[in-house]
């Protein structure tokens, strides 16, 4: 059955973590809000907003991204991956592996919130320009303390994997590997200097990032027009004054 | 098998969401870091730090809370509840119910991060006093926009439940109900004025909160010494200047 991904059309954002899983698995999916409503019936931003606003939806998503799969609607990036993981073959079979993979995903989600809040430390409803002094302060702690701490932790997870440091969980690809790849991509875009320093001390994370980029389907996706470029409307924004 | 909850001993914090599930289910558990190391072998803060720091732990938690259950170690509040839910009878049996319950939990986790960041908008490593002007700005948006938006959303979830608005998912108690109770408790402590206003427009949430407080085991727990009082070291802090 077709997967429908619903997410804001102009940014990678949180939707990208879901997109990478769908792409790496070669899944049959539509990126609903990016379809043109005039050309493809039931697509476009209006189609996404229709689901968001419909009082008939029993399980309304609080915010995009959300997945529609037949009658099932799932919101929250990590919950979507929890649902997709077994279906796409992107998580181990045992309960312990599944919960551990999910725990890694939730820690990635924590970094994503903190990365977002470097440019929006006061309110999502305000422009970056309206919270720039606060952003400068917040980004300092993120660069100097949080990025190193998170990447070092992921490095220790890889180093401790009894099946080797090629993947985060066991001896095969999981959605958490794809998400860690995306996290590194985002950090490198937004904080090139701070990321370079932190990755030097997290060699297993750097190696995982580089090896993911070689994954056949992922590489094809990254080179395609389906991959939206990073930009300053997304979560990972490159404001040079926030990096150093 | 005994559950070991590991969390900072002086605060409710994120550990409380796990504690409420264990308490409401009448589970056999120890609150490891709150045990006195001199009295009970293997307990106390040192026992928690030992797990955190041990290079032999294959699945190291990034931060407390974490659960130890036999050989299994699970970190991240929502992942712990994902693991405990079926074991404690605090989640439905179908996959759709489980993912939906988890999605609700992740949305509660989002509010918790935002509540924390009202008093720590710049850095967790700094004191509140060192980020007070920023906290005043951030709290304003949280009070005026975010609390109402989140509580209204949970209200619509309850109102749409085909089995009635007594519980978030189906016709029986889940860990998400307990967590929503705790979220309301925390918001009422930290932002009594803003919460009162928002709860008036979220009557189903207010009713769920009141009904949870009547739950036999939960009521016994709340009245016991095991319930740590809210305080200004935790996530929900009452700084009157941040409420209005």
Pick out its properties.
alpha+beta, 244 residues, Glutaredoxin, Glutathione S-transferase Yfyf (Class Pi), Chain A, domain 2, 2 domains, globular, homodimer, four-stranded mixed β-sheet
Largest interface: A-B, 46 and 46 residues
Number of strands of chain A: 4
Total domain count of chain A: 2
Name of the CATH class of the largest domain in chain A: Mainly Alpha
Indicate the percent of residues in helices of chain A. 40-55%
Largest sheet of chain A: 4 strands, mixed
The overall pLDDT average of chain A reads 96
Spell out the helices and strands of chain A N to C.
Answer: EHEHEEHHHHHHH
Give the overall shape of chain A.
globular
Gyration radius over CA of chain A: 18 Å
> Which architecture name of the largest domain in chain A does CATH use?
Up-down Bundle
Percent of sequence in beta strands of chain A: 5-15%
Order of strands across the main sheet of chain A: 2-1-3-4
* SS-derived structural category of chain A: alpha+beta
Q: What is the CATH topology assignment of the largest domain in chain A?
A: Glutathione S-transferase Yfyf (Class Pi), Chain A, domain 2
Low-confidence spans of chain A: none
Ends distance of chain A: 47 Å
Oligomer: homodimer
With helices defined by DSSP (H or I, 4 residues minimum), what is the helix count of chain A?
9
List the helices and strands and how they pair.
The structure is a homodimer of 244-residue chains.
Chain A: E1 3-6, H1 15-24, E2 29-31, H2 45-53, E3 66-69, E4 72-75, H3 77-88, H4 95-119, H5 132-160, H6 175-190, H7 192-200, H8 203-212, H9 216-222
Parallel strand pairs in A: 1-2
Antiparallel strand pairs in A: 1-3, 3-4
Helix pairs in contact in A: 1-3, 1-6, 3-4, 4-5, 4-6, 5-7, 6-7, 6-8
């Amino acid at each position: 059955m077709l997967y429908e991904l619903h997410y804001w059309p102009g940014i990678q954002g949180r939707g990208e973590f879901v997109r990478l899983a769908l792409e790496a698995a070669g899944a049959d999916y539509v990126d609903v809000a990016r379809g043109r409503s005039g050309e493809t019936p039931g697509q476009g931003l209006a189609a996404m907003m229709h689901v968001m606003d419909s009082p008939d939806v029993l399980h309304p998503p609080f915010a995009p991204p959300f997945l529609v799969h037949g009658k099932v609607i799932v919101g929250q990036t990590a919950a979507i991956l929890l649902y997709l993981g077994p279906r796409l073959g992107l998580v181990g079979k045992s309960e312990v592996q599944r919960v551990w993979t999910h725990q890694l995903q939730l820690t990635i989600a924590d970094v994503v919130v903190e990365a977002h809040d470097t440019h929006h430390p006061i309110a999502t409803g305000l422009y970056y320009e309206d919270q720039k002094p606060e952003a400068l302060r917040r980004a300092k702690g993120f660069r100097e303390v949080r990025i190193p701490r998170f990447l070092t932790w992921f490095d220790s997870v890889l180093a401790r994997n009894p099946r080797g440091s090629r993947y985060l969980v066991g001896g095969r690809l999981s959605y958490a590997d794809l998400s860690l790849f995306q996290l590194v991509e985002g950090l490198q875009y937004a904080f090139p200097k701070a990321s370079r320093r932190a990755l030097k001390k997290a060699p297993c994370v750097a190696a995982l990032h580089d090896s993911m980029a070689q994954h056949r389907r992922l590489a094809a996706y990254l080179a395609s027009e389906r991959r939206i470029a990073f930009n300053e409307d997304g979560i990972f924004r490159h404001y040079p004054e926030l990096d150093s």
